[in-house]
Amino acid sequence: MIWDELDARLNALPGTVSAYAGRVDAPPTWTRRPDATHYAASTMKVAVLLALHRATEAGTLDLDAPVEVRNEFDSALPGAPRFACARHYDNDEAVWERESGHVPLRWLAERMIVRSSNLATNLCLRHVGLPAVADAWAIAGARHSVTGRGIEDFAAREAGITNLVTAADLAALLGGLAAGATRPGPLASPAGCTAMLDVLFAQEFREDLAAGLPDGVRVAHKNGWVRGVRHGAGVVYPPDAPPYVLVVCTTGDPAGGEAADDTCRLLADISARVWAARHDLRPAAAGPPAGHDTDR
C-alpha cells in the first residue's frame, strides 16, 4: 500500500514529519503524527484570513476600508516595547512601497497569502486582533493550534508566546473552507469561503506541495518556512476525482540535505504520491495513533 510505503520512508528520516491526506468533508485516508505541534511559520496566516472574513460578515470590520500602512506594532507581551517588521526579511515589496500610505484591508489580506507578506500580516492582526484569530481556529475545530503573537514580535517570542499548528488542525481549517464554499457552514458564508479559497488559489509560492501536482491542477494552499521548518497545506481539486486535503508539516531536517530545496522536494514527492492515489482516498478503517510531539 502507498500509505505503508510512505510511512516506512518517513520513519527512516530525521526530524518530525506530520501529515494528513483525505477527501474534503470525510475522515482522512492517511495520517501521520497529525496532532504533533510544529512552529506555525506562515501557515497561521490562513487563520488570520478567516478571522478577517468572519469579522466582516459580523459587521465589525470592513475589508474594503482603507487602513494606514504603519510599521509599528504592539507586542503580545504586556509591557514590552512596540516592534517593527524587517523589510529585508519580507517576501513582498509591494506592501513596503505603500508604507505611510493607505490601502484597503482586503488588499493586505491578499498580500498576506499570495506573497506571504509579514508586514501585511501584522497590519491585518492589528485590525482583527489575536482573540478573533483564536476564535477562528476554534470554530474550525482546531484542538492544538495557537496564534499567540504577530510576526517578528521577538519580546513575546522570548517570553514563550508562540504560534503553533498541527497537520490535523490545518486540515480542519482548509477542509472547512472547501466544504463551506459548497453549502452554509460554521466558518463563513459560502461566498466568504469561496472568496478565501480564491485568494489561496492565487498563492505564488509553489515549490512544495504544488510542485508535486501536474500542471494546471488547481490547489488552494498556503505554505510556511523558517530555518528547520517547512509546511505545506492545501486543498487539491482534481478534474477527475473529488477534492482532497493534503497537509505536510516538517520540523528538523527530514530531507537530510543542507538546502531548503531538499525539504521542498520531499513535500513535492509526498504530494505526487497522494495525487497518484487520488481515486483511492477512502476513509481509513483505523487510523494511526495521534502524534507526539523569522516567519515566511
UniProtKB/TrEMBL annotation:
Domain Beta-lactamase class A catalytic as annotated: residue spans: 29-250
Any GO molecular function: beta-lactamase activity
InterPro entries: Beta-lactam/transpept-like (IPR012338), Beta-lactam_cat (IPR045155), Beta-lactam_class-A (IPR000871)
Origin: domain of life: Bacteria
GO biological process: one example: response to antibiotic
Gene3D superfamilies from the UniProt entry: DD-peptidase/beta-lactamase superfamily
Keyword Hydrolase: yes
Keywords of this entry: Hydrolase
Protein name, entry field: Serine hydrolase
